[in-house]
Amino acid sequence: MSKTKELNNITKKLGPKKSENRGKTGSSKGKKSASKSAGARGSASSKKRAPSSARRPSRRPVLTLKPWQIFAALGALLLVVLIPYIIHKNGETGARVPEGNWTYTIDISHHNSTIVWDSLAVCIDTKGRTSRDILKAKRVFNISSVLIKATEGIALKDSDFENNWSSALSHNVKRGAYHFFRSSKDPSAQARNFIETIGPLSGNDLPPVLDIETIHKGCTGKQLSDKALVWLKAVESHYGMKPVVYTGDWFLKTYISKEITDNYPIWIARYNTTPPEFNDWILWQFTDEAVVRGIRGKVDLSVAPIK
To answer: What is the number of structural domains in the chain?
Structure first.
């Protein structure tokens, strides 16, 4: 009996320990499984969050142009700007042309822009005005001659004279040269300046021209005419032909002597469509605002009657 009691006592002592161990073991297992599930949830949530943390804000695509595309765009823009300007310039009109049957002469200097010599023409539209648009012209006339500024005073030479002089010859346009007279300067020295600048004349060249349109303060009409005669006679003697005198209708009546008008051909300036008061003229400059095909801007235009 005593042994049995002892065994029972031992069993009782051992029983709770085993259950505690099982409880402890179960508890540790529970903790382990809980930690595992928490770890799994943590890793799962971290896996789910990973992509969101790696996301970047979306960017709009940047348009990049190749060099040829940029040049093409600029070229198109330039055309849009220039075409209306070109159309306007081609359709530009100038002074009205006097009624009559004429040949046409222009006079030029460095004040005129680049000249397209093989395009020179006088186009007259349906309203009787000079026009740059040959397609809208009612009548088209060739330029019969061009008078080119060569010199002024005793030393000045027109910067475009040599180019204009040679270009007229190479394009078979009849040419002539003129000198702008200064009443305050020595007329003999002015004649030398002109002769040395233009050199010899060819058989097809027009006679030299003396442009008299200003008078300095204190100079009288007689003094002006006497000085002009010195130039005229020196140039006539050198070239063996009478020079032409260019002057205005009013200026001629006011300052130019009868000795000049009786002995030298007159190229008269009167900006109107009615003829000059002075009748004995060979050339009439009727405007300084003509539009001539082949020259940009306004041009002096003269007419001569067809005989």
So the answer is: 1
Q: How far apart are CA 125 and CA 291, in angstroms?
A: 11
Query: What pLDDT is attached to residue 40?
Result: 44
Does 242 map to a domain? yes
Q: Is 125 helix (H, G, I), strand (E, B) or coil?
A: coil
Q: Facing residues of 146 across strands?
A: 106, 175
Rounded average pLDDT over 48-68? 61
Contacting residues for 94 by C-beta, under 8 A, at least 6 apart: 129, 130, 131, 287, 289, 290, 291, 292, 298, 299
Least confident of 75-84, 103-112, 131-140: 75-84
Lowest mean pLDDT among 70-79, 175-184, 203-212: 70-79
Catalytic residues: 107, 213
CA distances from 168 to 144, 267, 281, 303 (A): 11, 21, 25, 19
Distance CA 73, CA 85 (A): 19
Is a pLDDT exceeding 50 seen at residue 45? Answer: no
Q: Judge whether 285 lies within some domain.
A: yes
CA distance 150 to 191: 11
The per-residue pLDDT for 245 is 98
Domain that holds residue 240: 93-305
The answer to the question of residue 121 being in a domain is yes
- Whether 110 is covered by a domain: the verdict is yes
The enclosing domain of 117 has a CATH number of 3.20.20.80
Helices (H), the chain: 2-54, 67-90, 161-170, 187-198, 221-239, 249-255, 258-263
